[in-house]
Amino acid sequence: xxxxxxxxxxxxxxxxxxxxxxxxxxxxxxxxxxxxxxxxxxxxxxxxxxxxxxxxxxxxxxxxxxxxxxxxxxxxxxxxxxxxxxxxxxxxxxxxxxxxxxxxxxxxxxxxxxxxxxxxxxxxxxxxxxxxxxxxxxxxxxxxxxxxxxxxxxxxxxxxxxxxxxxxxxxxxxxxxxxxxxxxxxxxxxxxxxxxxxxxxxxxxxxxxxxxxxxxxxxxxxxxxxxxxxxxxxxxxxxxxxxxxxxxxxxxxxxxxxxxxxxxxxxxxxxxxxxxxxxxxxxxxxxxxxxxxxxxxxxxxxxxxxxxxxxxxxxxxxxxxxxxxxxxxxxxxxxxxxxxxxxxxxxxxxxxxxxxxxxxxxxxxxxxxxxxxxxxxxxxxxxxxxxxxxxxxxxxxx
Length: 398
Hints:
By secondary structure, this protein is of the alpha/beta class. Helix content is 39%, strand content 13%.
């Protein structure tokens, strides 16, 4: 909850400026809004921070994934390689846009592995929806050669990884399109919101138009612009954008605090025999929103999580204690449950989702324990958390 830890006078000021004009809609009303376009200002901050040529704000991280897929040309009947370890919105976006998910293995980066991708590649593969999970980048040095060799469309879901880089390049800029989430639990928050980025001008224009019913935003007479494409309503409000703008201005400070506090916790765990850590191809590029470590076995991980719960330590094992982030809990996905007919109902699933064999992913997620890192952690509270964390694990290993 890093961003939410920092709400203050600056956010209130920006929101009040919007409320004073009464213009909560991001387009038009130029005179009444007194020159203030908070969504555009948020996008400019995001472009500056990520280095993207273009950024476009939308209503949520979920709509950002959908918009990014559409802007990249992914659609009906396209087979798209996805991860079994992500917030379920990634898979929902692929299915709801009409594409067909093909699940591949992850590794100890917590992201799709190049080996996992290779194992499911077929002539029907159109693209990859790559998730940069838990605040850090996938192994882009291994994955990008596959993307280029097989001419794949890469869309990056970096919903949990704003602030993460791989060797100087922001996540979200390796593929055709990328996206982030600004929900309440992210490194920066707008309360609710999302962001798409790209270096491709055509993809950007599609983002802006697709998320606003195809409006091209030409001229000052809304509703009278030409329509080039169809779209829907994924617009972000000016009030949410006002908060997000200030939060983007705070992100480097938040990231610095995250790194400092994560290093303290990681150093304590590193002294304990048998504990290993998530593999990071570029540790310097970490957004440090999570501390991810592995117990030697899934059984020990489950015992540690039970001890954490007893001792008041907040943590996650995505196999045992979370219903939304790992495929073993996604019966509604496996059984293709939807109130309407999807593309996958028409074309058929490219895999038998009920009988998927993902032994590497199961092994990684089974042993994984994830702890959220607070940016605004008072020193005494951090010390108490660290000591209790270590004590809880020692009880299990004793």
